[in-house]
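testing teh design pipeline on a random one, pls ignore if ur not involved
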């Protein structure tokens, strides 16, 4: 009986670790943000957000001169990096906070267009404490 319990416990840990590792590989160090996070940072109106997969969690959002993400369970508010270029009206292609920089490499290949939004392929280049992680996904911009 103990062996069966031990094996079941090990299987649960393996499944959880594999799922967590797959999420980490797909998302890099970034974690999902929420509308509550965006509003707490004062974000409202026209801007962009980035997701690693269609209809997936929002891992990075930008509005005006404010960017937001979540790393290790903590909300990180970013500002435009020096020399950042306009990516979409009201937002930029490079962001920074202490220990973290995010650069958006937008392909400008339109994947979807709505009345007030446009979706393009984009890669996030995340530098966290000197470690560089590139993650492909979609940038959705609009109001």
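output:
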């Amino acid at each position: 009986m103990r062996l069966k319990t031990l094996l079941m416990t090990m299987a649960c840990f393996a499944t959880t670790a594999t799922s967590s590792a797959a999420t980490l590989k797909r998302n890099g160090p970034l974690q999902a943000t929420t509308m509550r996070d965006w509003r707490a940072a004062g974000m409202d109106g026209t801007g962009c957000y980035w997701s690693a997969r269609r209809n997936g969690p929002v891992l990075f959002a930008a509005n005006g001169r404010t960017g937001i993400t979540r790393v290790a369970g903590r909300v990180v508010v970013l500002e435009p990096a020096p020399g950042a270029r306009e990516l979409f009206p009201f937002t930029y292609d490079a962001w920074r906070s202490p220990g973290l920089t995010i650069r958006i490499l937008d392909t400008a290949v339109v994947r979807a267009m709505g009345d007030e939004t446009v979706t393009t392929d984009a890669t996030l280049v995340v530098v966290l404490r000197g470690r560089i992680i590139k993650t492909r996904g979609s940038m959705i911009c609009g109001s």
